[in-house]
Amino acid sequence: MSETIFALSSGAPPAALAVIRISGKEAGKALSALAGALPEPRRASLRTLRVSRETVLDQALVLWFPGPATATGEDLAELHLHGGRAVVRAVEAALAGLEHAGEGQPALSIRPAEPGEFTRRAFANGRIDLAEAEGLADLLSAETELQRRAAIAMAGGALSQQVHAWRDRVLGASAGVEAVLDFSDEDDVAALPTSFYADLASLAEELETWLSRPRAEALREGLRIVLAGPPNAGKSTLFNALVEDEAAITAPLAGTTRDVLIRAVALDGVPFAFIDTAGLRDGTDDAIEAIGVDRARGELERADLVLWLGPEGEGPELAWEIDAQIDREGHDAKAHARHRISAKTGEGLDDLRRDLVSHGRSCLPRPGELALNRRQGELLSQALTGLRGAGVQSDLLILAEELRTARVAFDSLIGRATTEDMLDALFGRFCIGK
Ligand SMILES: Nc1nc2c(ncn2[C@@H]2O[C@H](COP(=O)(O)OP(=O)(O)OP(=O)(O)O)[C@@H](O)[C@H]2O)c(=O)[nH]1
Ligand SMILES: [Mg+2]
Description:
The chain is of the alpha/beta class and 434 residues long. The protein has 14 helices and twelve strands. It folds into three domains: 121 residues, Gyrase A, domain 2, CATH 3.30.1360; 129 residues, Up-down Bundle (Four Helix Bundle (Hemerythrin (Met), subunit A)), CATH 1.20.120.430; 141 residues, P-loop containing nucleotide triphosphate hydrolases (Rossmann fold, 3-Layer(aba) Sandwich). The strands form two sheets. The protein has a six-stranded mixed sheet. A six-stranded mixed sheet has the order 8-9-7-10-11-12, sandwiched between helices. Keywords: Cytoplasm, GTP-binding, Hydrolase, Magnesium, Metal-binding, Nucleotide-binding, Potassium, tRNA processing.
């Protein structure tokens, strides 16, 4: 942790500008080794960067942020370079070279940063908590407007504030229990406040509401829409129409699709993952097709929604009944289809898309609404279990223990109690330079 790190924090060169960040105890020394005397803090200054008196690297805007009130909580420097590949490479090489003593320059403890290492330091130094770091990771990978809005709320600490508030309520309840336990040694008969159990119940209800909301993963990965039905139902043709690409092979041959094909598409800013599957049929003597059918069944189980193109009423529960290929002569119409479409002529497709978008909006977090990810959801469930246990407990020692469980879960949620594995997994999601 004591080493100073550096990395390109802007996108891949070439570009107009490239930003290299340097963070750590020796960031100031590294900056002045290249740019001369340290500039005024938090003010952009134009400098000539050099590795030696003769060798000019670039003309750059440099910024100096002395810690600890910085993004990482450490001394931090930024070099805004011309964004050419060779420029970036030369400056990176010069920074890496500072590891060795040079012309009147002692060796520095400096190295290239690992993925997410700047953010990890921000977390280690208490600049952001875990929920905020997760929000930041989502923000950087956000591709749709809905994802961006949810991530920005999380990164801004909205969930963290909520968790702190819940944690304080649990602490208050614990203090009440401790007080009674302390008094019980004396003659005075102490009791829990009259509203004690009602307060716990209302907190538990609040957590339940949060847990019942749509989860962040659906937002991140898109709503899983599986196209299913027997061979030749027209699944791949509809899939291609929905993803607007000839991604899947279609043919009059039954059993054309064997593998599972997934395409992520945003419709009206709502993220979907459309999934084409092998036609469902039993007793095929083609071993590969049989594997495809197994996979298709697996996808049905994981689907958020199934579009059923097979015989009416034979699809999974809650599947949307789709009457496909309605343009075909002698087409046998379904009696109660949610949509009648022809992927060939395009008939009915706009209605289907609109329906998907409005359904998607209803099962994804609403714009700006905080969505829990799996980790956060699990911890909140643990907290809820503790609270529910406490809510029916009259033995004060056990009650205190249940409340402690809830508190520990809240602590883990915001990262007061974490494991290295978990941190590796989270910060590994970031790119280098973040
Ligand atoms: N006229 C008409 N033909 C269609 C339509 N949709 C699909 N087809 C044709 O029906 C045949 C089967 O279509 P696919 O999309 O490959 O069917 P599938 O359900 O993916 O079939 P498998 O992959 O074998 O399970 C192809 O020849 C398509 O061109 C449609 O809306 N109208
Ligand atoms: Mg197919």
